[in-house]
Structure formats: structure tokens, C-alpha cells
Amino acid sequence: MVQLFILYYLSIKQTHGYEIQKFIQMNQMNEWNNIKSGSIYYAINKLERSGFISIVDKSNAGEKAKCIYGITEKGQLELHKIALQEMKKPLGSITAEKFLIYPIVANLNKSEIIESVTAHLHQLENEKAKIIKWEQEKQDTSKSVEKATLSMMKETINLQIKWHMALLDNIDETISVVDKIHQMIKTTDYSQN
């Protein structure tokens, strides 16, 4: 997750880790997603070692120079690959990377998004059919907890289907919002706030 977000941010503009950290804090992403300050700098170092980002400048703000990073061509390819992988993943928990949709949508074209979501919906419908079959087979023999488990599994899949359908139904609107976020990041220095 954190690597996806850092690559996304650096694909918009060259900056330092502190600005990325401030953006995350201002948008409370650190509270509802697992992006913590320490993980940002760890991920930056890892991305640099992998050749996905590189230092393009150093600012001499105060006693400590801040490294300004930019995404490399290799990093752009990795960002697209990660975004496509995330789009195909299920929504497993409330901290699922897919809920942070704009770095994913920003790095895929509309047809890739539609194709990934449609394939995932097909997979979810197949899983739902299996659960319904299990429910029918165990209808008379299931204990309360088993019935509750199957019901919860089915409802979880129904909610995932609903979320993915909302994305498909509102794909142009989502892309428009992503474009606005892109422009906002591009024109604002969040480390000054």
C-alpha cells in the first residue's frame, strides 16, 4: 500500500518524504489505512534501492537537507503493475488497499479498470453461488454458528459486488475526481501546511 501511494505521489511531482507524510496526515489516511510515518521512509529507501525512485535534488531547509525524489521509468512501470494487481484484489477488510482508489485509478486506463472489475465481479458471483449451494446443502444440519458464518460470507460478497458495481457505474465520475486530486497534489506543497 505505502509503496503504491509513494510511487503515485512521485508520478505527479518530485518531492520529499515529509510532504508525502503531511498529505497522508492531512487526509487522515494514517488513521483508516496502514500508512504510518515510519513506513513511509522505509518504503522510500526500499523503492530507491529497487531503482523505482531516485534522488533528483537536495533542499537545504534548516540543519537537515531533505532529499527530493522523483519516479524513474522503471518506477512508472512498477506503479502500473501494482495498480493493476490492487484492482484485481478482493476487499478483504476496512483497510484494504483498494479502498484508496485514486492511486489505482490514476495509473490505469478506463478499459483496464473495466476489464479488471468485470473479471473480479465474475469471480465474486462464482463465490456467492458456492456459498448459496453450501447453505442449501446444510440447511437442515447446520448449527447456529455455521448458519451465521455462511450468512456473513454471503453478505460480505454482496457488499463487495455492490462496491465494484458502484465503481463501474460511476467510472467517469471517479476518473474526474482522481484528476482533481492529481491537480491538487501537483499545485500544493503539503509540507507547508
TrEMBL record:
SUPFAM superfamilies: Winged helix' DNA-binding domain. It comes from the Bacteria. Residues 6-80 form the Transcription regulator PadR N-terminal domain. InterPro entries: Tscrpt_reg_PadR_N, WH-like_DNA-bd_sf, WH_DNA-bd_sf. It holds the Pfam family PadR. PANTHER family: TRANSCRIPTION REGULATOR, PADR-LIKE FAMILY, TRANSCRIPTIONAL REGULATOR YQJI. This is PadR family transcriptional regulator. It comes from Acetobacterium paludosum.
